[in-house]
Amino acid sequence: MTLRLARSAAIPLLFLLATSLGGLDFGTYWDDEAMFTKVRRALSPPPTLLPYAYDYPSTTFWMTLASLAPEAIGDARLRYRVPDTSSLLAATETSGFRLRVRTVFAVLSALTIVWVAGLSLALGATELEACLGCAFAATSWELTYHIRWIAPDGAMTMFGTLALFAIGMAGRSEARASDRWLVVAAAAVGLATGSKYSAWPLVLPLLMAAWPRHGVRAFAFPAAAVLAYLATTPGTLLQPTLFVGGARGQIAHYATGHGIYTIARGATHLARMIEYVGLVLMSPYAAVALAMTVASVIGAVDMWRRTRREAFLVLAFPLFYIAYLSVQRVMIVRNLMIVVPFVAVCAARGFRSVWDRTDGRRASIIRSAIVAAAALMIALNAFFNVRSVESIRDRSAGRTLDAFARWHRTQPAGRVALSPRLRTALGGAAEAAGNGEQASQTTAFYALEPPHLKLRANERRQFAEDFGPSEVNLNYYPDWVGDEHIVVVPTPLLSGPDVELNR
Hints:
The protein has 503 residues and is mainly α. The protein has 23 helices and four strands.
């Protein structure tokens, strides 16, 4: 199994590592300082190694703290009766530490690809099918840029996929080996929930996998998952007041709203998530994303027909998870990264299902078309990811302005209204385009200028054009605080009431 898994995952994993690590220095991210503040509190004299904040559980806190290992090794001052942590605290202020933490997060999150291969193989996939699923996941731009962030979603995705892989292996193993796999799954569920509270529904497939063989004793495995969670977040017991406050704050936050990310719960939220998963999550090209989504539906149906129990164990979590998110009033798409492995595995199964059902005189033509379609989708996604890394590494304010100016020169006079700041930046080029903004179809401005206050997140085609590095999908994060982009927006979108910046 190990060799098959390695052969299936190796190339896609290396690609994801190259593209995620290649774009680590993408600029500012909202939550960087929030995490570093937790580490500084934990190290402040006398050091307690507790974060004093539980908006998120503590797996990612330990990942960040462990990133200080190079500074801690050989620091004699840490061996004092009351350790002197001043050098460690100083290290957290450096840009090198920030990039190191991002590296740790990206590398650990990228291991998702290994467990995608494992989950596919556990469900009876061939190595080629498993490799195809890995390639679909590894070339998802949304996954690539999200795992660079110092945020819990990549870790939750990795541990959650590991849990489902272990559950799949438990169903295919004899009694003793099955129990060992269930222990691995329980630990992974605890670590996923220790990364982000919203991973708790993973307990459900764990319990369902253990129940047929163990009956009531199956609850021992969810109990083991709770112990694994407590090992990652001991503050649950050691700082209960802070923990309850942080957990209640997150519950209230998602129930009441979050600035421009606030959305109507229920059908509206569910529809937006389906749109994102179906047309955005797996590819920056809507046609490619839709093709993968159709293939994943075919694959899910094929799994259900083959082995309903295994299909239910695999598919129950993402379906329940999306339903659970839909009753919240906040939609931030990084919450949906954990869906990527399931779409990828099912899409690969969908391609295999069509391949297996193809026969007759035209079978060779149809199968050639299937291979070409899969190869083209992967190649397009890979090309976009490579170009996005180049745009991050070569970014500058001047490049962004030049790219916009070249585009602007191709537009008819008066079609694009310019903000005062952008008009000043363009200088003579703006004057050459003429006036007539009152009848303009679109408006161009720097992304965080006042017109931004009219916009909301999670609008798939909100920006007609976006100039700047490809480090984030601005349609879903329009208040991005990293490098400034120049955006072009249909003018009617700017006619609504202002929406306050949420961060």
